[in-house]
Design a protein that fits this description.
globular; five-stranded antiparallel β-sheet; 5 strands; SH3 type barrels; single chain; mainly beta
Length: about 80
């Protein structure tokens, strides 16, 4: 099932990243992620470790979810729904 059709607005909280494990509250929920490199996307987290997260990233051009993981210090902000 695809993610929501809207793109949430970034609430600028700074460029210092997020706290380790803070995405845990978004496990198994549609979550919009903004990375420090400027990219943003819908994400469905299934694992949150001490310093990394993994789950499924929505690929709009392919209209499918693809497995994805990253270090939490690469994440600028996120918002779960």
């Amino acid at each position: 099932m695809p993610p929501p059709l809207f793109i949430p607005q970034l609430i600028n909280i700074g460029l210092f990243g997020i706290e380790a494990g803070s995405m845990r509250r978004c496990l198994f929920q549609n979550t919009y992620v903004w990375l420090k490199n400027g990219r943003s996307f819908w994400f469905y987290p299934t694992y949150v470790g001490r310093n990394s997260v993994a789950g499924y990233r929505w690929r709009p051009n392919q209209k499918r979810w693809a497995y994805y993981g990253t270090d939490e210090d690469e994440i600028r902000s996120f918002q779960c729904y």
